[in-house]
Amino acid sequence: MLVLDIGGTKVAAARWTDGALHGRRQWPMPATLQGWRETLAAMAGAYPEPDRVAAAVTGVTDGQVLSAVNRQLISFWDGYALADALAQAWHCPAVLLNDAQAAAWGEYHAGGRRAGNLLFLTLSTGVGGGLVLDGRLRTGPRGLAGHIGHVSATCAPPDDTHLCGCGRPDCLETLASGTALARQASQLSGRPLDAPAVFAGWQAGDPVCVRLVTAAAQAVAQELANAHALLDLDEVRLGGSVGLADGMLAAVTLAQSALPALFRVPVAAARLGADAGLIGVGHWASDRLAAG
Ligand SMILES: [Zn+2]
After folding, report:
1. What separation in Å is there between the alpha carbon of 121 and the centre of ligand 1?
2. In the prediction, which pLDDT does 238 show?
3. CA of 254 to the centre of ligand 1 (A)
4. pTM (2 decimals)?
5. Domains of the chain listed by start with CATH number
6. What is the CA(189)–ligand 1 centre distance, in A?
């Protein structure tokens, strides 16, 4: 099987054999449909004749077609029949799974399939999530399940930018994504700052950066408490470049300490790092084949 992880900035590919990745390569994600078709042709040349293709993708998917949640991310993604395009490129069956849902399934496998109810939360360019409930990955009929980045946060972003790329106001993504941290810090400090600079400023005690990271961590802790109240989670795995930034997990745990004990769900760093989507979609597609 060939596994792909198609994100906003890169496409990763690998062969999936015996529960592991082999021959991993990656390409930059093109901004246009024409560029994407050329990348697809290059990948088809690099990985000839797989028996099937399973792709973890950014966006909401029902397994065949994509709907963009954040329309600013990839312009041609909304309504694109990606599974058909993959099937045509490789002349074999192709399935899609949202990348955060794939990572949730990968984390569930990496933990020895012990946590019955697991939420994977990624704080990265955007904010994504995937849910495993009673040992099953829940995607939902439309693929929307687990999209915790587009649940309203309990506080507004400190720079008063309310509208999220999805069309809803005050989503967690407007506060706690890398894009949001960079936007807020640049606006409040009056100079361009990216997310790593915000974390560096936070470690150095810069008041604007401290305020923003603290607000992001508090919003994450509140969303996790909301999810825990709804679903009774066994554990949360935190991933993404912001989620895994030095000190972020500790900031979220500190924010959780202000909550009543009943609503504090254990949060730990994701185990699989940058390959979580590839590994997760590999397990998911293999498990579906094994289940018939
Ligand atoms: Zn949103």
Report:
1. 15
2. 97
3. 25
4. 0.94
5. 2-101+274-290 (3.30.420.40), 113-270 (3.30.420.40)
6. 24
